[in-house]
Amino acid sequence: MEGGFLHLDPFRSLPKEEKNRLCQDCSISAFPKESRIFEEGKKADAVWFILSGWVRLVKRSPEGRPVTLFVVTTREPLFGVSAVGFDTYAASAIAATGAEVAKIPQRIFQHLLNTYPSFAKSIAVLSCKRIREMELTYAMAYDTVDRRIAHVLLQLSNDFGDTLFFTHREISEMAGTTVESSIRALSRFKRKGWVRSSRGKIVLLQPKELAKEER
Amino acid sequence: MEGGFLHLDPFRSLPKEEKNRLCQDCSISAFPKESRIFEEGKKADAVWFILSGWVRLVKRSPEGRPVTLFVVTTREPLFGVSAVGFDTYAASAIAATGAEVAKIPQRIFQHLLNTYPSFAKSIAVLSCKRIREMELTYAMAYDTVDRRIAHVLLQLSNDFGDTLFFTHREISEMAGTTVESSIRALSRFKRKGWVRSSRGKIVLLQPKELAKEER
DNA sequence: CAGGTAATATGATGTAAATCATAAAAATGA
DNA sequence: TCATTTTTATGATTTACATCATATTACCTG
Fold first, then answer.
1. Which residues have CB under 8 Å from B52's CB, separation 6+?
2. Which stretches of chain B are DSSP H helices?
3. Rounded CA gap, B107 and B115, in Å?
């Protein structure tokens, strides 16, 4: 998948020679599940685009628990945290699945932003969309554990279908709760016949009922 | 303050004739404290910039309680929710203080975004910054009430100094909690000598101690 | 200025979910 | 193959906070 990110929206309409240069300057790498792409507090030197897989943006809460701020899916940028000249990442990026990621050095990103109106416009649109998405997920933080878990499962099923290969620890971190609470929520869902699960695997049997719970 | 928003970052470098046209097409209006600038779920037809005062972005949680997603201060855009062609507002905007607001019709905003690279770049930068700010405040949602209240007070004091003219209901909504919890938190802070308060007025006596609490 | 409403205050009670504890099964790996 | 770690599971305890209740005070408005 050489230069796969060049087909993504902000890059698509760049001139050919710029694209060729980007192939040189940007790297694509594969991150195994649970590995860290970048670290909260570290110097932010690049903007990242996800080519495949999911990535969680995780921040340590003042109490020390890791809180998943947002889950970024395939074809989306991990920008925000670093795009426009901030010196440190506000959150860590952790691969929620195996993930292939393109790394655009900050200097290059700035250059593209300054040089190509279409690029700037595309980034403006993408980031405004992201703000809206964040607004939608933010309100969830004040909701019950059961609904947060249901929400995470449904969100995951959008990309992965009805069979999800995640542990309760992973689910709990995405939902901002504890492993035990995640297990208990799943047990309740099981008892209602909405899901089935075994070690590292959750099967959604009645997503529609889950969606009702979510409301 | 005619066309005051034209001095703000995205507009500053627009050509003179475009600025003149904007003076025609955009309106500036004053919103009294607690009044609604736009409503969650309603058709999003404009992008707003705050010229003075504070505005809260409020979303109804699934349980029905209003949750303040973000507090936007003077000179900042209320974009996100509407900037790039979404049909409904994801949250309501409520004036947290008396506020003066410029309304840019969506059609005009699109035109500026498509026509002026500097405008697109500026919006890209502003929205990426906003994403970072949201990431920073998001983690707070999972924190204790006392720390959330302390955080809100300190944030407010950035703009308004040590004497804040807000009721406990207002504070509680910004902190995502109840009036009673807000009052109790303030009582604890009072007992420690960190704040003084009377009806509709909170005076920060020892902001540094509050900041410690916040950590 | 009397009556109503909003803000402050605090006590009592309920509850969701974190924490603590323990255990068994499954995976890992030395 | 045996020890260690991870995952799932569930029960007991604790805790922060919401909820409910009630009272007082300040304020507005007819």
1. B74, B98, B99, B100
2. 9-12, 16-25, 106-115, 117-138, 145-160, 168-175, 179-191, 207-214
3. 12
CA–CA separation, B191 vs B193, rounded Å?
Answer: 5
Q: What is the DSSP letter of B199?
A: T
Nucleotide D26, nearest residue via CA and C1': B199
Cβ count within 10 A of residue B200: 11
Q: Measure in Å the smallest separation between the Cα of A197 and chain B Cα atoms.
A: 27
Which of B127, B133, B136, B137 to probe the A interface (max A CBs under 10 A)?
B127
pTM: 0.88
**Which tokens hold the place of B5?**
């928003």
For chain A, strand residue ranges (E) read: 27-31, 36-38, 46-52, 55-60, 66-72, 92-95, 99-105, 163-164, 195-198, 201-204
Q: How crowded is residue A195: how many other Cβ atoms within 10 Å of its Cβ?
A: 25
| Residue bearing tokens 């037809």 | B45
Nearest to A144 by CA among B148, B79, B63, B177: B63
Report residue A176 CA to chain centroid gap.
Answer: 14
Instruction: Produce one character per residue of B91-121: b if its CB has 16 or more CB atoms within 10 Å, e if not.
Output: bbbbbbbebbbbbbebebbebbbeebbbbbb
pLDDT digit string (tens) for A188-210?
999 999 999 999 999 999 999 99
Kindly determine whether residue A62 and residue B215, on different chains, have CB atoms separated by under 8 Å. yes
Band of the pLDDT at A83, cuts 50, 70, 90? low
Residue B34 and residue B95 in contact, taking contact as beta carbons nearer than 8 Å? yes
Give the CA distances from residue B108 to residues B83, B112, B167, in Å, rounded to whole numbers and listed in that order: 10, 6, 38
In sequence order, the β-bridge partners of residue B70 are B57
